[in-house]
Amino acid sequence: MDDREQDKPVALEAYELMAEEYNKRVPTKDYNAFLERPATLSLLPDIKSKHVLDAGCGPAIYAEIFLNRGAKVTAIDVSPKMIHFAKERLGNHATIRQANLEEPLDFLSDKTVDLVFSSLVLDYVKDWDSLFAEFSRILRDDGYFIFSTEHPFSKFTYKDHPRCEVLPKNYFETEYVEFTWTGFGKAILVPSYRRPLGTFFECLHTAGFCVEKLIEPRPTEDFKRQNPDGYQKASRNPSFLCIRARKTL
Ligand SMILES: C[S@@+](CC[C@H](N)C(=O)[O-])C[C@H]1O[C@@H](n2cnc3c(N)ncnc32)[C@H](O)[C@@H]1O
Question: What is the pTM of this model?
Fold first, then answer.
């Protein structure tokens, strides 16, 4: 189904279906634990006593790391099941609430957050201009915005993949695509948006962010031990982009 036919968040149903297996598998899953996560974590500044918003926290694997580093954490996600697992993992050590990133973050006041963090979530939000404006509003001056996404080039090559159900057609457009995932238990259709690399920088610039660092992560040795064949593929093809930006307005 194309997103124009529905009002609800595009990936809500997929993540409700996936939540339980995601919670079980993601702590040690090769592409997350040994590829995306080490790279994204390497972008973190010192967050001791800082207020971190984990936007699209899922089962709160990252939020738990932030708590262990001494941060004050607000964790939000649109999926009630993901929120359930986040509460199970974090207890009452963080503020956890269900929220849709496609809507204003009214529960957060201006300039009250030191770091907005969002790992593998922004692929499910079409309107980055509105969302990034909200992130800029809640961030203190000089605040950090750190995020990871699927790599825009890897997503464009989905068109050659047998499990790509709605194909990307034009690299230069932000496009609705659908892909069947099999890495978290049963096959689940995951809709998302694919956008060109230039759009990343345009949206960040418009919202008053400048990019400090960009990483195209490579798999670690632990990835190789866990999945030697997958390691060969992940060593040669782009999977994710990890970006640290700074509020400059
Ligand atoms: C791939 S998971 C990433 C979870 C977590 N950040 C991590 O890296 O383990 C994507 C998450 O984005 C959430 N999500 C998708 N669309 C969202 C939206 N519109 N608002 C808030 N969360 C959303 C999903 O429910 C899911 O928990």
Answer: 0.95
